[in-house]
Amino acid sequence: MECTVKWTGSGMSFLAETGSNHALVMDGAPEAGGRNLAPRPMELLLAGTGGCTAYDVVLILKKGRQAVAGCEVSLRAERAESEPRVFTSIHFHFRVSGKQLKPDVVARAIELSKEKYCSASIMLGKTAAISHDFEIIEI
Hints:
Blueprint: E1 3-7, E2 14-18, E3 23-26, H1 41-63, E4 67-79, E5 87-99, H2 103-117, H3 119-124, E6 129-138
Parallel strand pairs: 5-6
Antiparallel strand pairs: 1-2, 2-3, 4-5
Helix pairs in contact: 1-2
Pfam families: OsmC
Protein name: OsmC-like protein
């Protein structure tokens, strides 16, 4: 995996170009010299973690022949007060929708993502207490 990050030369904005040929912009908070034009790098780290685990949960449920129709995860993170301001806790709240989804199967999919498949949350779990809960929405 590769990525190149370049300072745009203006404020604290950076352009990332990924190895899969996608680009995204990051910016800093105004109090740190940024212009608030794009997400902060740590916000993207949190968003990427949410994407990683949601991907796993959907894939696991589909492989288990569950009639999953939607998966949304909200993440709430706390950071250390002093530098480095690592994540110290992250709570994942999953909202999984579908037809006749079994709570034990959804719980197992979330647990498998947390313990085995989601590289991002497993890595962040080295500094942060990870917790999760879920709700099932019948459609």
